[in-house]
Amino acid sequence: MASSSNDSTALISEFLLICFPNYQSWQHWLSLPLSLLFLLAMGANTTLLIIIWLEASLHEPMYYLLSLLSLLDIVLCLTVIPKVLAIFWFDLRPISFSACFLQMFIMNSFLTMESCTFMVMAYDRYVAICHPLRYPSIITGQFVVRAAVFVIARNALFSLPVPILSARLRYCAGNIIKNCICTNLSVSKLSCDDIIFNRLYQFVAGWTLLGSDLILIVLSYSFILKVVIRIKAEGAVAKALSTCGSHFILILFFSTVLLVLVITNLARERIPPDVPILLNILHHLIPPALNPIVYGVRTKEIKQGIQKLLRRL
């Protein structure tokens, strides 16, 4: 029996991604808004990176952190959306083992990297408002470098076991993934091994990382709100809140889409299976598309940078 299992595993060299198995006929229509969102996300984030790079006045820690967020968004979009569109347009469903597990690793690690970046940005706003005189000595270029290394190292190390555990499973129950992307649960379902530890690790690691970030973000904003309420000077409250308003909106986008995705997965028996699949794709598109636009609309320095860039063109 062991040899036949190994033989069947060796025969499977790739997976087949079946997007929206119950709604195959309208995939081409769905590809239009997805491709427009993808172009918007790539264009907006690339423009933001160029503006921050070219504009000397934006060479500050807050904008370096925003650049890190844009880079994470670009990588997440490129990891997921081109393959989804290739399935919709050209029926290119096959994905190799290595590509599938690489996609799984990037999705898990970069999602938590975004959450961690929001946490560092919340700390930046906390220092700026609660300790303004100490801000230049605390939030330095060196701080941003260390924060970026921490964001990448922490989340990459904690996320790496997820694809490794999945890759070590024996796949003898077919190779059709009922999803547009290689999520851990969608892939591990095809295994004939016990996947309890696989699921448990992702659950514990994911919620430990995202949960700790959320707690620190809430604490930062609690301290900010406490200080803002004490400020008596006219207009000072509005000015203080405007400095972290954009950041707070980005966190709401990220958290809301993620929360809806979690709820639909928990209630998957009552909800059509295609709904969580669509929400998973949108979570890799909506925050990346809206993040740079929110900062662009609400930040005077970035608006000026856009105007200068347009004049150069």
TrEMBL record:
Keyword Membrane attributed: yes
Every G-protein coupled receptors family 1 profile domain range: 44-295
GO terms for cellular component: plasma membrane
Gene3D superfamilies the UniProt entry points to: Rhodopsin 7-helix transmembrane proteins
GO biological process: cellular response to lipid
Keyword entries, A-Z: G-protein coupled receptor, Membrane, Olfaction, Receptor, Sensory transduction, Transducer, Transmembrane, Transmembrane helix
Pfam families listed in its UniProt record: 7tm_4
Cellular location(s): Membrane
Membrane-spanning ranges: 30-54, 66-89, 95-123, 207-228, 240-263, 275-297
Keyword Transmembrane helix included in the entry's annotation: yes
Annotated protein name in UniProt: Olfactory receptor 56A4
